[in-house]
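Today's session is about reading a structure prediction critically. Students often jump straight to the picture, but the first step is always the sequence itself: look for stretches that repeat, for charged clusters, for runs of hydrophobic residues. Only then move on to the predicted structure, which in these notes is written as discrete structure tokens rather than atom positions. Here is the chain we will use throughout the hour.
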Amino acid sequence: MPPSDVNFPAAPTALKMTVSVGIGMLVGLERAWSNKDVGVRTFAIVSLLGTLASFVGPDFIIAGLVGILLLVAATNTRSILADRSLEITTSAALMVIYLLGVLVGLGHIFTPVAGAIIVTMLLAWKSELNKFAGGL
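Below is the predicted structure for this chain, in token form.
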């Protein structure tokens, strides 16, 4: 853990947090549009968690991942009890968004933004991808 006198520069930190929340909101908007239980706020918070965990250190990245896995387990348990379905795609998207948030915190911008766009496209094109796969 970094010493308590570590200071995060305001401008780069604000940029990283903004990008992180933005990529979480992008994917979360698609999930909300698809009427999923996990939406904009949750995805933005998960991405921000990844970014903040990477600021603090590797131990916190792992702890955050464990927290996300518990969130995924709870979400899927609730979904199974409610309507006997799994939210595997949303769960996978949550884990990817956490990782993209970690990457933002580590100073990467292009890869997480491109990754969020690709995830959003894959989620939004569900019916088109199913039609394509069925046509093969």
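Discussion point for the tutorial: The longest helix spans residues 58-83.
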